[in-house]
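To fix ideas, we quote verbatim one protein's residues and fold tokens.
>
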Amino acid sequence: MGTIYKSIDKTKISVIGAGTWGMALARMLSIYGHTITVWSALPAEIEELNKTRRQKNLPNMEIPEDITFTTELSNACAEADILLFAVPSVFVRNTAKAVSDCINPEQIIVDVAKGIESDTLMTMSEVISDELQKAGKSNPIVALSGPTHAEEVARDIPTTIVAAHEDLAIAEKVQEIFTNPVMRAYTNTDVKGVELCGALKNIIALASGIIYGLGFGDNTKAALITRGLAEIERLGLRMGCLPDTFSGLAGMGDLIVTATSKHSRNSRCGYLIGQGYEPDDAIKQVGMVVEGINAIPAAIGLAKKYDVEIPIISAVNEVINHGGSPKQAVKELMGRDTTTELSKPILDLNYESAVIKNTAIRIRGEQSMKRVITYGTYDLLHYGHINLLRRAKALGDYLIVVISSDEFNWNEKHKKCYFTYEQRKALVEAIRYVDLVIPEESWTQKRSDMHEYHVDTFVMGDDWKGKFDFLKEEGVEVVYLPRTPEISSSQIKKDLYDANAVDGESKTSHDDINTDPGK
């Protein structure tokens, strides 16, 4: 953007919903030059706002005189450039349906509601889009989310937020409107990830409040927030969301503020439950919508749909919806089977670490590119092959794989291959660790390859141990890597040869199988 804030043309913005967050944003946007209309379906609410210029949950925030109020949705939509959806998540669909009758094609919808519809598993922007499509409309919908308590925005405390839309230009337009001296907006194209974080962090905040109500300390809260974010990210990645979103404002940022702040209604509700209140009584005590409770059924549904484990959210569900004991829930979480917090297999991490280390050494000028070479047939490509290639690449920067040609394989190795050289070559080239694939035509080729390809390290499986030590005479390092014990091409081929002898093994051809038994 160039600067934190720059003057822009006045934008006409209609805030759809006169709750705490909607009114805090309405005030801020009005102060920084935008024309604001606020709509509510409740005449009494509009009357009170007009009369007192105060929002009941923000009694110290004065509403600017130039903000107008209406109960007529058509009036709110008539001339607005932006429709700011700020209704509770449970009312988003009905509101979107009503708006679809009067929205103009050029208007942008900005949604600040956080939640997931429990029966459809749609995010709020998807719900709005669904209703617009039914009316033949297709307005852009930007998700606006982040660590933004209304109580602090109402006091002009510096705040950051993220505007998300698949079209970055549309996200940047909203970014410009919402950026001013007290609010800094960022952009993101991962709409689903931003909305998923905004909905599920409320459930983790409930859990955070519960453990605080039980009397546990900072250690427990830190663990819960960290592992809670891991659950959200695990689900989000399975759904196709971007990893950066979870470490950004909508993910980590919003989770921290919601799970730790005195302003958080979700955390407050959880605290009361931890203190012994029944969930319904705790909600009444809070006196505002507790979105985390509304989000639980959808979170459980998404976890089942994508087959993802979410133990903390599941524990909250047990307490809120099935009468479970908060203390017992904590006990069961602490008693789960031990595991690693690493998101990738250790071999992948070792490989990536080695590549980064070798690259850093080369950048410092301490080493030129290190070339590694290995040989094999690579028929019936399997995990054992890939495992060896991964470890070979970790020994250097450039991996050359030499595959036995069809003639060499049969005439010299006396091996039958299921796939031709070209087929085996194509498969190996698809592996990300491999930089170059060439054919092996004879046993004597290895000596010349070491010089032709400027090889530093020769790698083979340890079932060849000692057989290629003569290559040290060519000035290369010779390394024998342990084979993956659970699998080998020979065993696979033996199993294939013996398949007809296996009791119970199907001998039916594909042509004889009815793949649609319902017909």
Summary: The chain has 22 helices and 13 strands.
